[in-house]
């Protein structure tokens, strides 16, 4: 998509990201719709496979995979609701903050983003305990605690994202986004960073000792590290796909420049992250891959 940035400092207070409604070219809109329609279908199908695999496969019903299912639920909602709403916004060229389409699409996008971030944080803590305290893991990470953490994260992110409905002027948007970013993204990422610093340090020590371990302990240690590395890949992809949107958001609200086309381009990249995650799980986890094939054969 050719990104056309409008350098017009004048803003309409009710404007969603720009008051100019003519500069988004038809070619860009068509490309935006096609790309996002494809990612929407892939996100819906892929994440539905993850959720179904965990639900129907007893061996996959572990705390780690419950957290992954929670993240897949958020990604599923992105494909099912958020992406179609963004397509509608682009096609109808809606640029009013208080428009119902703006409010709902912002709410769903922000809530699912924060739910995914807390899901990543939860599964990182799960991997942290599994690698640093393997003998205490089953006592610390129980199914009830796992489900409580998931429900708490979803309830918290729903409440936090709902404040978007109270923002009725563009001047208030930066305050809301900053607050949501701090409590919904930055704090979980700080926890993720410190957990992985310890995980990689412990994994390095385990590799040195691996020769002295029994074959069962060695296999278990390798399996736990592989799971941790898979989550690290998911986190890395998440940061790569969402960073452009964070940058455009920051520039938009600090430089007072209209970046509507840039918003559409970066949001497309960010939302596509939801379509990619299921296939990373399948590529890295043979159990998921076998469950995928089994489910697809039943169709």
Automatic annotation (TrEMBL):
InterPro entries registered for this protein in UniProt: GPCR_Rhodpsn, GPCR_Rhodpsn_7TM, Melcrt_ACTH_rcpt, TAAR
Regions crossing the membrane: 29-54, 66-87, 146-165, 177-199, 228-257, 263-283
Signal peptide: none
Start and end residues of each G-protein coupled receptors family 1 profile domain: 46-281
Any one Gene Ontology cellular component term annotated for this protein: plasma membrane
Membrane topology, from the record: Multi-pass membrane protein
SUPFAM superfamilies: Family A G protein-coupled receptor-like (SSF81321)
Keyword flag Amino-acid biosynthesis: no
Keywords carried by this UniProt record: Cell membrane, G-protein coupled receptor, Membrane, Receptor, Transducer, Transmembrane, Transmembrane helix
Domain of life: Eukaryota
Cellular compartments annotated: Cell membrane
GO MF terms, alphabetically ordered: melanocortin receptor activity
PROSITE patterns recorded: G_PROTEIN_RECEP_F1_1 (PS00237), G_PROTEIN_RECEP_F1_2 (PS50262)
Pfam families attached to this UniProt entry: 7tm_1
Assigned protein family: Belongs to the G-protein coupled receptor 1 family.
Protein name: G-protein coupled receptors family 1 profile domain-containing protein
Species for this entry: Desmophyllum pertusum
């Amino acid at each position: 998509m050719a990104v056309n940035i409008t350098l017009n400092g004048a803003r309409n207070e009710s404007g969603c990201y720009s008051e100019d409604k003519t500069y988004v070219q038809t070619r860009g809109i068509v490309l935006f719709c096609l790309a996002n329609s494809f990612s929407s279908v892939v996100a819906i199908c892929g994440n539905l496979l993850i959720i179904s695999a965990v639900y129907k496969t007893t061996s996959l019903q572990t705390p780690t995979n419950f957290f992954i299912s929670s993240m897949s639920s958020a990604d599923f909602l992105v494909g099912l609701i958020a992406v179609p709403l963004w397509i509608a916004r682009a096609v109808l060229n809606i640029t009013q903050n208080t428009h119902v389409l703006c409010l709902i699409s912002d709410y769903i996008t922000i809530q699912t983003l924060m739910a995914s971030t807390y899901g990543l944080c939860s599964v990182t803590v799960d991997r942290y305990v599994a690698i640093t305290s393997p003998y205490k893991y089953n006592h610390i990470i129980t199914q009830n605690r796992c489900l409580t953490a998931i429900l708490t994260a979803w309830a918290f992110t729903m409440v936090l994202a709902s404040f978007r409905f109270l923002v009725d002027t563009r001047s208030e948007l930066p305050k809301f986004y900053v607050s949501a970013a701090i409590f919904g993204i930055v704090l979980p990422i700080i926890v993720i960073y410190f957990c992985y610093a310890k995980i990689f340090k412990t994994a390095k020590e385990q590799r040195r000792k691996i020769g002295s371990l029994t074959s069962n302990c060695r296999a278990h240690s390798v399996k736990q590290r592989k799971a941790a590395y898979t989550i690290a890949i998911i986190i890395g992809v998440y940061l790569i796909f969402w960073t452009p949107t964070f940058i455009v958001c920051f520039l938009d609200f600090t430089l007072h420049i209209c970046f509507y086309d840039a918003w559409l381009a970066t949001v497309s990249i960010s939302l596509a992250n939801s379509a990619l995650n299921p296939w990373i799980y399948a590529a890295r986890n043979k159990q998921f891959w076998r469950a995928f094939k089994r489910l697809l054969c039943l169709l």
